[in-house]
C-alpha cells in the first residue's frame, strides 16, 4: 500500500470469508489510527457500523451523515440498516 494519506476502497470485503474480513478490518483500523484517511463504499450495513462516520446514499444523494451511534440515536434505530430504511422513508 505504501504510505497513502487517503485510501479509497470499494466493497473491500465482498466475497471474503469471515476470518479474512476480520483481518482486513483490523488492518484498516491500524491504518486509521496511524492517520490514514479511509473512504469505504459498501452495501454491507454491519460493516458501515464499523466506520467513524457513515454517509447513506439514495438516488445519488446523501440522505444521512454522522457517526453510526448518533445516526442510530437520531432515528431511534438499533442498526444502520434500520436507519437507512427510516431515512429513505422521509
Automatic annotation (TrEMBL):
Q: Which domain of life is it from?
A: Bacteria
Q: Which InterPro entries match?
A: P-loop_NTPase (IPR027417)
The GO terms this record gives for MF are: ATP binding
Q: Provide the alphabetized UniProt keywords.
A: ATP-binding, Nucleotide-binding
* Gene3D superfamilies membership: P-loop containing nucleotide triphosphate hydrolases (3.40.50.300)
In the UniProt record, does the keyword Nucleotide-binding occur?
yes
Q: What is this protein called?
A: ABC transporter ATP-binding protein
